[in-house]
Design brief:
Helix 6 runs parallel beside helix 7. This protein is α+β, with helices and mostly antiparallel strands and 755 residues long. The protein has an 11-stranded mixed beta sheet with strand order 15-7-8-6-3-16-17-2-18-1-33, sandwiched between helices. Strands 19-20-21-22-23-24 form a 6-stranded mixed beta sheet, with helices on both faces. A hairpin with an 8-residue loop joins strand 4 and strand 5.
Length: 755
């Protein structure tokens, strides 16, 4: 390092006055061989290496509807329909940073490596800062029934705010760390495709250059996703997305693909295939002339003189094509040569290049359309998977949304991992994958079981964002202060007073204590167990647990029977509305209630068990504060009030407000339900590393075996309310019933049944 005396004095001066060093000193003080680098506020090469256990929520071995039971298929499944060997596909709910780190550094890495490693990643991250991730949800049994707009959960909104809170800086920081972990997780011959658009593709390419290396950049694929439309007044219309394609090394898997569907190829076919044989088949004439002198291919054939450089094929091949009728012979004496006939109905098309104009956005009436924001067409993902993976390879999508990558992977015989932060996305993917399983089973094709997991035992992170420019100690103090402010806000809205001297209890409302779950994570089973243990230790019996969200698969009845009067409440979004809190308009509502009835038939030692779903109640609220005043005349709005979906309309002439309840019956709230007839049959076993050794441990919980299910689809809105009967030997059973509401939230009830 060579610094002049003036430069040294300037550096000391800047440090003494607490001012940042000018940019030039970064290169003078620190060696860096990189010619070009993307720099942003708070850039760090530190990547999380946390390893958290995966909690097994649910397993779907075979899709079952109607009265299907006991029909074994193939060597993967036993006679009960359970997969007995091989890889089980993974659908994982949670923060993909924690999931990626746990996959890369945890016990599941060995399982991934045993499949040959992760060969392909496709991701479509939220690159639109102004995106609206609300969902339109249809109510009830009618396909064209009323719908309402489901807003993102508070946890999803916080994640999105963390991604875009500081604009491009925070998006780049989010992507940089995740892409770093993905690079480490990919197999040496693996590839990654990152979908983006004009807003973020330049930043994203620089990140990928830094992580994967410029030499491993393969292509920027331009996808023309829609046709012409009216242009904005000050710029041209945007009709394309970019897909950045990188490999991990020079061991590239790239299978040649051909297309006939692009405009260019269609024009080529119309222009060139202008000949017809005696049977009316269209063909084009293709020269069979060697570009270079080939004496060994210079021969006369059927009286036709060879070209100057010779033919491009051997005499044997010429004779074979002649037998197949694939040669065109001109009239002798014209000086014309023999040509090959390429028939239009055998033409595979032209090689796929980096401009894709032959894949269209999803048709509004297409079966695959799920009305999910950012959903991409299956044909787009199919091309990527066919191009950069082989049958049996493991592929992944860590922003899987509605599950398009997973559905295509299953249909193409690939193994898969999919993750998403949104519960509704996971639920949409679950239904979609069961639909794919049913489709493949009906066609007699192979498919694999899949399991739903989440990252259990979450580390308790800071509840609210802190200043990234602060040092670690100050950030921790700021986080503690913000946590106190958050709890104070919740207690105020709940009309409870703060209490101290408890580890997990923060408030008291009349004769009940109050515990508050974290703002950016779901309330976990571990958190509730610690609350129950503390109350038992202090001989206290009444507590309310408040949370924005609860872990998938949480069985609330398990805690109610532990000698503590525990009530679970949902914290509404309105707690962040200061006016609503001041006016006392924030209503905390109970978690959903499920009621079922077992139906037992048969005599002797074997019985048949069915489950009838008899009631379901939710207590949601959304957009119901001051709606009468805010609504404009002649307009209507769909709200949710105390567990009812209501259409509020203000008359154009009289300005009178009318209300129509859209949820006519309790079943209108149900989107999906499933039954596990023997819940205690499959223990949840996780792999943990202790003292450098890996071992299997029973968590004390069980995995929900999805043995029968009924759910609504876009085309079929009807539900079955009595499950198919399952034949079981006499005995005592714990039967689990899982209900997923139209928001994507699940409620599980376990009942004891004696046969």
């Amino acid at each position: 390092m060579k610094l002049t005396d003036n430069e040294k004095r300037d550096i000391v001066k800047y440090l003494e006055t607490g001012k940042p060093l000018p940019e030039k000193y970064r290169f003078l003080l620190f060696k860096d061989d990189r010619e070009v680098e993307l720099v942003w506020n708070g850039k760090s090469n530190e990547v999380t290496n946390v390893v958290l256990p995966f909690q097994h929520i649910e397993q779907i071995d075979e899709p079952r509807e109607g009265v299907e039971f006991g029909d074994a298929r193939g060597s993967l499944f036993d006679f009960s329909g359970k997969q007995i060997s091989g890889w089980t596909n993974k659908l994982i709910w949670g923060d993909n940073k924690l999931i990626l780190s746990s996959l890369k550094n945890g016990p599941m890495r060995k399982e991934i490596e045993a499949q040959g490693g992760l060969k392909l990643i496709y991701i479509d991250p939220p690159f639109d800062v102004g995106a609206d991730f609300s969902m339109d949800i249809t109510i009830g049994d009618e396909e064209d029934g009323e719908s309402f707009t489901k807003k993102p959960s508070v946890i999803e909104e916080i994640a999105f705010r963390d991604t875009w809170g500081k604009g491009a800086d925070s998006f780049i920081a989010m992507m940089y760390e995740r892409l770093n972990i993905m690079h480490g997780l990919l197999a040496e011959d693996g590839s990654i495709y990152v979908h983006c658009d004009y807003r973020m593709n330049s930043y994203t390419k620089l990140i990928l250059d830094e992580i994967f290396g410029k030499n491993n950049f393969r292509n920027e694929i331009i996808w023309k996703r829609k046709g012409g439309s009216a242009n904005p007044s000050n710029r041209l219309g945007v009709v394309t997305d970019s897909i950045l394609y990188y490999s991990k090394s020079d061991q590239v898997v790239l299978n040649p693909l051909f297309t006939r569907d692009s405009d260019d190829v269609q024009d080529y076919i119309k222009e060139r295939f202008n000949n017809f044989d005696e049977k009316g088949r269209r063909y084009m004439k293709s020269p069979i002339v060697s570009p270079n002198p080939r004496p060994n291919l210079t021969y006369e054939y059927k009286g036709y003189t060879p070209p100057k450089n010779g033919w491009s094929i051997s005499r044997e091949m010429m004779e074979e094509w002649d037998k197949q009728g694939k040669l065109y012979f001109p009239e002798k004496g014209t000086g014309d040569r023999i040509y090959r006939k390429i028939y239009e109905d055998e033409y595979v098309g032209q090689p796929v290049q980096s401009l894709w104009t032959d894949i269209f956005v999803i048709n509004p009436v297409a079966n695959e359309r799920l009305e999910y924001p950012t959903q991409k067409p299956e044909t787009l993902i199919e091309r990527i998977l066919r191009m950069s993976s082989r049958e049996g390879d493991l592929v992944a999508d860590f922003f899987c949304g509605s599950g398009t990558t997973l559905a295509v992977a299953e249909k193409l015989g690939r193994k898969w991992i999919g993750t998403d932060l949104g519960k509704f996305g996971i639920h949409t993917s679950r239904k979609r994958m069961i639909g794919v399983q049913r489709e493949l089973k009906k066609a007699g094709k192979d498919f694999r079981a899949f399991e739903i997991l989440n990252v259990g035992k979450y580390e308790r992170e800071s509840f609210l964002s802190t200043n990234d420019d602060l040092r670690a100690e100050e950030k921790e103090r700021q986080a503690e202060q913000k946590e106190k402010e958050f709890i104070k806000l919740i207690l105020s809205a709940y009309k409870a007073e703060a209490v101290e001297s408890f580890a997990h209890i923060v408030g008291k409302k009349r004769d009940r204590l109050v515990a508050v779950g974290p703002i950016n994570l779901p309330v976990s089973q571990k958190f509730i167990q610690e609350i129950v243990a503390e109350l038992k230790d202090k001989n206290i019996s009444k507590v309310d647990v408040l949370g924005f969200d609860y872990e998938m698969g949480l069985i609330f009845d398990d805690f109610i029977t532990q000698g503590v009067d525990i009530a679970f409440k949902i914290i509404p979004r309105e707690v962040f509305d200061k006016r609503a809190v001041e006016r006392g308009q924030v209503n905390f509502y109970d978690v959903a209630y499920v009621d079922v009835k077992p139906i037992v038939t048969g005599k002797g030692n074997t019985k048949e068990l069915s489950i009838e779903l008899t009631d379901f109640s939710v207590f949601y609220n959304q957009d119901n504060a001051d709606v009468d005043e805010a609504l404009k005349t002649g307009r209507s709005k769909v709200i949710i009030e105390n567990g009812q979906v209501i259409k509020v309309t203000k008359d154009k002439d009289t300005e009178l407000v009318s209300r129509e309840v859209l949820t006519k019956k309790w079943s209108d709230w149900i989107d999906y339900w499933a039954v596990d007839y023997d819940f205690a049959d499959r223990k949840e076993i996780i792999k943990v590393v202790e003292n450098g050794e890996e071992k299997e441990v029973w968590t004390g919980d069980y995995i929900f075996d999805n043995e029968w299910q009924s759910f609504r689809t876009k085309k079929n809105r009807n539900l079955e309310f009595t499950s198919a009967p399952k034949e079981l030997p006499k005995g005592d059973y714990k039967v689990a019933i899982k209900v997923v509401d139209i928001f994507g939230n699940d409620t599980t009830r376990v009942i004891d049944v004696k046969l």
